[in-house]
Amino acid sequence: MGRAATSAETAPRVRPAELGDAHDVARLLGDLGYPCNRDEAAERIAVVRHDPRQHLLLAEIDGDACGLVSLYTLYSVVHGTELARITALVVSPACQRQGIGRRLLREVELISRRSGVSRIEVTSNQQREQAHAFYRDCGYSDGSQRFVKALGD
């Protein structure tokens, strides 16, 4: 699929997610491989909206949700400064390669700069090679290996 030209009418608009967006948030998280239902998505939106260190943004084209990014900021003892961490970024498969992911990253970077953040981190599953190429293309470099332990006890 080639890159589609975006006009002023079809350029993505980015805005904070609202509770009424729960269906779209659930669909987009499912596209990313983290399925949830509308009620679970509504609960997640509510948590983010009540935490000033978190942001959940939707990209829309002509009023239709086509992408999502979430991030939070935290103080890093190691770096001695605030940093931002992107915890999810997804563009609907039908809307990929139209600049929506880049638009979402630009918005995250603007928010981060306004918050005094000097570093943005993003993790991506080792199997998501296209996502890795996308991030590198957007100026992100490879970083540390991440280890995870689920505490399911």
UniProtKB/TrEMBL annotation:
Entry keyword Transferase: yes
Keywords linked to the UniProt accession: Acyltransferase, Transferase
Highest taxon above the source species: Bacteria
Domain N-acetyltransferase: residue ranges: 12-153
Protein name, per record: GNAT family N-acetyltransferase
GO molecular function: acyltransferase activity, transferring groups other than amino-acyl groups
InterPro entries to which the protein is assigned, alphabetical: Acyl_CoA_acyltransferase, Bact_Acetyltransf, GNAT_dom
Acyltransferase recorded as keyword: yes
